[in-house]
Specification:
Strand order of the largest sheet: 4-3-2-5-6-9-7
Order of helices and strands: EHEHEHEEHEHHEEEHHHH
Distance between the termini: 39 Å
Mean pLDDT: 91
Structural class: alpha/beta
Largest sheet: 7 strands, mixed
CATH class of the largest domain: Alpha Beta
Radius of gyration: 20 Å
CATH architecture of the largest domain: 3-Layer(aba) Sandwich
CATH superfamily of the largest domain: Vaccinia Virus protein VP39
Number of helices: 10
CATH topology of the largest domain: Rossmann fold
Number of strands: 9
C-alpha cells in the first residue's frame, strides 16, 4: 500500500499508486485500530509500509499481492516476522475462507485500484459472513457511491448492495500528493462493517440483484416503466411505493419489498 524506498516502479496495468505520506499511513493504521487478537487480511500491500504499522499491533496478518515483482521485496522486509504470511494471487478470485482459522472472523484492509474496486467489493460482500470489518482506500467517487443515501446523485446499485450487507462510514479524504505517482483524482478511506443480522433481509438475493440492476440501468425511467416486466402499478401501490418514482429515491427497505413481492423461479 506504500512505497517507502522506490525500489519498485508503480505499474499502470495494476493501477498502482503507492502511499508515501507517513502521516496518512499512521492515520489509516489508527483508524483500523488493530489489536493482538485480530486476524488482518491486507489486499495489495505494495512494499509494506502500512503492513508494518498494522503488524506493530501484534496481530496476525495475511497479505495478498498480485504483482509478482513485489513478492521478494515483501518477503525480505518481513522475513523475521512469524505473524506475517504472504499470498501471491488475484484478490478478485481469492477464496477468503481459506485464510480463516477456527471460525475467527477476518478484518480486511487495502488500497484498491479503481478498475477492480467495485467487483472486489461485491466479491467480499458475497463472503461477508467471514468478515468483521473492511477498511479501504478508494477513489473518492466510489466512497461517495458506497455511502450515498436515497435522493443523492451518487446513490445506485453499489450503494444499496453495500448497505444491504454493511454499515458504511466514509472516514477521511486523502489528497493526490500523498501518493507516488500522484493520481489525478481524490481518494478516501471507507469503513464497511457487515451487519450481524441483516436489517432488511431479501427472500432471494438474486431477485434483489435483478431488481437493482434493472432499475438502475434505466435510472431515468420511472419504476412503472423500468420494472414493468416484473411488477405492475397496482402491486407497487400496495407496497406504498409510488409507481412514478425513480430508483434513486427508493430506500433499501423499499427495494427489498419489491424484490420479495416479485420473486419468480427463473430469477433465483
Amino acid at each position: 500500500m506504500a512505497n517507502p524506498d522506490n525500489k519498485h516502479r508503480a505499474r499502470k496495468r495494476f493501477g498502482q499508486n503507492f502511499l508515501h505520506d507517513a502521516g496518512v499511513i499512521h492515520h489509516i493504521a489508527r483508524s483500523i485500530n488493530a489489536s493482538s487478537d485480530d486476524h488482518i487480511v491486507e489486499i495489495g500491500p505494495g512494499q509494506g509500509a502500512l503492513t508494518a504499522d498494522i503488524l506493530a499491533s501484534g496481530c496476525q496478518l495475511d497479505a495478498i499481492e498480485l504483482d509478482r515483482d513485489l513478492i521478494p521485496i515483501l518477503q525480505q522486509r518481513f522475513a523475521g516476522e512469524s505473524r506475517f504470511s504472504l499470498q501471491q494471487g488475484d484478490a478478485l478470485e481469492f477464496d477468503f475462507s481459506s485464510l480463516q482459522h477456527k471460525g475467527k472472523p477476518l478484518r480486511v484492509v487495502g488500497n484498491l485500484p479503481y478498475n477492480i474496486s467495485t467487483p472486489l467489493i461485491f466479491h467480499l460482500l458475497d463472503q461477508h459472513a467471514l468478515i468483521d470489518d473492511m477498511h479501504f482506500m478508494l477513489q473518492l467517487e466510489v466512497v461517495n457511491r458506497l455511502a450515498a443515501v436515497p435522493g443523492n446523485k451518487n446513490y445506485g446499485r453499489l450503494s444499496v448492495m453495500a448497505q444491504y450487507y454493511c454499515d458504511v462510514h466514509a472516514l477521511f479524504e486523502v489528497p493526490p500528493e500523498a501518493f507516488d505517482p500522484r493520481p489525478k483524482v481524490q481518494s478516501a478511506i471507507v469503513r464497511l462493517t457487515p451487519h450481524q443480522q441483516l436489517p432488511h433481509p431479501a427472500n432471494h438475493i438474486k431477485t434483489l440483484e435483478h431488481v437493482l440492476r434493472t432499475a438502475f440501468n434505466q435510472r431515468r425511467k420511472t419504476l412503472r416503466n423500468s420494472l414493468k416486466s416484473d411488477i405492475n402499478e397496482e402491486q407497487l401501490t400496495a407496497l406504498d411505493i409510488n409507481p412514478a418514482a425513480r430508483p434513486e429515491t427508493l430506500s433499501l427497505q423499499q427495494f427489498v419489498a419489491i424484490s420479495n413481492a416479485i420473486r419468480t423461479p427463473e430469477l433465483c
